[in-house]
Design a protein that fits this description.
Layout: E1 6-9, H1 15-25, H2 32-40, E2 44-50, E3 56-65, E4 68-76, H3 85-99, E5 104-110, H4 114-122, E6 126-131, E7 141-147
Parallel strand pairs: 4-5
Antiparallel strand pairs: 1-2, 2-3, 3-4, 5-7, 6-7
This protein binds coenzyme A.
Residues 25, 74-76, 81-87, 109, 113, 115-116, 118-119, 122 line the site of coenzyme A (COA).
Length: 148
């Protein structure tokens, strides 16, 4: 738990804030409809971290099927970074996984995104393989995973 930050389920009322953080954090941000769909679909873990004023500081959107979970999105607004918010969001996903017989968590991260890779390594994710030309602009993805 981080002082002044609450982690709760995401709702459609959070989508304007989420989209703002998303647009600033990613070269190819998800459209609002993507997030809206994720909130409706089964097999999803969709969480926001909000501060005392209700502002969305960060979010994670994950999906799971059988014994695997995939982290589709995680981002923290620049002014809230390096306070452990993303780690707390991931810890909530890990707790969910452990409680639901999920044994593998995987994700893709841009090859050039050293900061995010360092973040995942800190959580003990390891690089599994490279997925060439994964992103729309042709950049490769590093696939990282964690057995839980
Ligand atoms: C990656 C991201 C989600 C991390 O969020 P955060 O809340 O700042 O991360 P945390 O504070 O929980 O970091 C936990 C630890 O991870 C590591 N870490 C996090 N960001 C890092 C960075 N940019 N460079 C190196 N290590 C980093 C550190 O070890 C950190 O602990 P410390 O601050 O005590 O050194 C955030 O930088 C972000 O939103 N980036 C843009 C979007 C993105 O790249 N998302 C991932 C796409 S796959």
């Amino acid at each position: 738990m981080i002082d002044g930050i609450e982690i709760r389920s995401a709702t459609t009322g959070d989508l304007d804030d989420i989209r703002r953080v998303e647009a600033a954090a990613f070269i190819s941000p998800w459209r609002r409809e993507f997030f809206e769909a994720e909130l409706q679909l089964p097999g999803r873990v969709t969480l926001v971290a909000v501060d005392g004023t209700g502002e969305v500081a960060g979010y994670v959107f994950a999906m799971f099927i059988f014994d695997e979970m995939h982290i589709n999105k995680i981002a923290v607004a620049a002014s809230f970074r390096r306070r452990g918010i993303a780690r707390s969001l991931m810890q909530r996903c890990l707790e969910f996984a452990r409680g639901h017989d999920i044994h593998l968590i995987s994700l893709e991260v841009r090859k050039s995104n050293d900061g995010a890779q360092a973040f995942y390594r800190r959580l003990e994710f390891t690089e599994t393989f490279i997925r060439p030309r994964y992103y729309p602009d042709g950049e490769a993805a590093v696939v990282m995973s964690l057995v839980v």
